[in-house]
Design a protein that fits this description.
The chain is globular. The chain contains no helices and 9 strands. The protein has one domain. A hairpin with a 2-residue loop joins strand 2 and strand 3. The chain is mainly beta. The N and C termini lie far apart (34 Å).
């Protein structure tokens, strides 16, 4: 399997230009049109399998998403991520 990594905020663009500010997602929405495997924050974390055409919401500190299609990709396959969060120094710290 070939996993792709995405750091939250990598392609963050404001109406005035490119901000390039990474952030921590507090609420993450995910939608895909086929089954995907994802992991949050570290490749050693548990694999979460997403079923096709279902919205998923995760409310946790997410800084990076690793994703991999379960059965290969064809031209019309996709996965979409929507992030809402804070700058890294504003994120909750585990106690």
């Amino acid at each position: 399997m070939v996993w792709t990594a995405y750091a939250v905020g990598t392609n963050n663009i404001s109406d005035r230009g490119d901000q390039k500010k990474l952030f921590v997602s507090k609420s993450t929405l995910i939608f895909a049109n086929k089954t995907w495997a994802i992991r949050f924050n570290n490749m050693n974390n548990v694999i979460i399998y997403l079923e096709p055409n279902v919205w998923y919401e995760f409310k946790s500190n997410i800084q990076q998403v690793f994703h991999e299609p379960v059965m290969g990709v064809i031209a019309d396959d996709y996965i979409r991520f929507y992030f809402e969060g804070v700058l890294p120094d504003e994120a909750r710290r585990p106690e």
